[in-house]
Amino acid sequence: MTLNGTPSKEQGILTPLERLQEHFAGDIRETHAFRGDETAVIRPSSLKAVAQFLKDTPELDFNFLMDLTAVDYLFFAGGRIQKEFRFEVVYHFFSLKFNHRIRIKVPVDEKNPEVDSLCDLWASANWYEREVWDMFGIGFRGHPNLKRILMYEEFQGHALRKDYPVNKRQPLIGPVN
Amino acid sequence: MSTLSSPEGFFTSKLNDALGWARKFSIFQYPFVTACCGMEYMSTAASHYDVDRFGAGFPRFSPRQSDVLFVVGTISHKMAPILKTVHDQMCEPKWVVAFGVCTCTGGFYDNYSTVMGIDTIIPVDIYIPGCPPRPENVLDGLMKLQDKIQKGEQSRTLYDPRTKTGRPAEFQGGYTIEGHIKHIESSSTS
Fold first, then answer.
1. Is the pLDDT score of B60 beyond 50?
2. The domain at B14-189 falls in which architecture?
3. Which is more confidently placed, A11 or B90?
4. Please, which residues have CB within 8 angstroms of residue B12's CB and are 6 or more apart in sequence?
5. Closest Cα to residue B104, out of B169, B44, B45?
6. CA distance B153 to chain A (A)
7. ipTM for this model
8. Domain range summary for chain B, segments of one domain joined by +
9. Do A166 and B177 touch (CB under 8 A)?
10. Which domains does chain A have, with CATH numbers?
């Protein structure tokens, strides 16, 4: 352990990403680490198990879901880069005890945009997942109250999808301008 | 002498003057503060610039007790019906001040969520542009509003984006997404 409690590699302690790779070797599509920022892209089917593992393993103890958002890769880099899956849901976890972080990405297909909800593991996932549903139209299986959080119920479509027309206006009252 | 000979002449016009004078120095304002312009509104209201010198130092937080609606900050489409309700709840005579360029025209926002000028929803008497406007600018707008109150004038018209009527010409041009893309393309090639 270093002074602030971060496990250090020199003492033979695995980083969170290495622990994850040990347990879920078959479920990790790719990994990436840059100056301590560790990222794992996992299969959607393993999300629940990975999340449970991150939270419940005493050496990891990711008790804080810092952020949950999504990315739409349609027209990515001006259409020059074609991704296999259109969306990615991105989770940022943090451990208050060990002061370490990990980023988990889950690719989501355009035809069936749905992943498992993490509401029962981290309560903060509730509103994040509603925001992702509102803005990107990605559903969350098992969410207790999946409805729009930012836009009004009358709003059609999902505003942060890259194919939402940039000039489209849906005012509740007043003219369209 | 012509005022004396007119049917409602001399006396009523003086009464209106007196009413206008009384009203313009006892502005009860309703601050509808939604965004960063609120900071500038606070600094205008506080002792350094001291909006109380103009008789507008007493914000009321009920629309039924206020004369002037200060719309301070970006109004989203989700907020628009609430703003309209607040305006409807105010008693006559009432005035509306659009504080900051977001309320005047939408400002630099041109997206799915923002109302492009509150004068599409409620009539606006005074436009105070700026992002945010400096307190001097706000006080200038307040004095223009006082002139308007003194004359007994009130805005009754809404802005119609199709005919482009009901909004001062200087707030009509402004930002368009096409113009913005053109600007980016022309500056990146040069």
1. yes
2. 3-Layer(aba) Sandwich (3.40)
3. B90
4. none
5. B169
6. 24
7. 0.78
8. 14-189
9. yes
10. 9-141 (3.30.460.80)
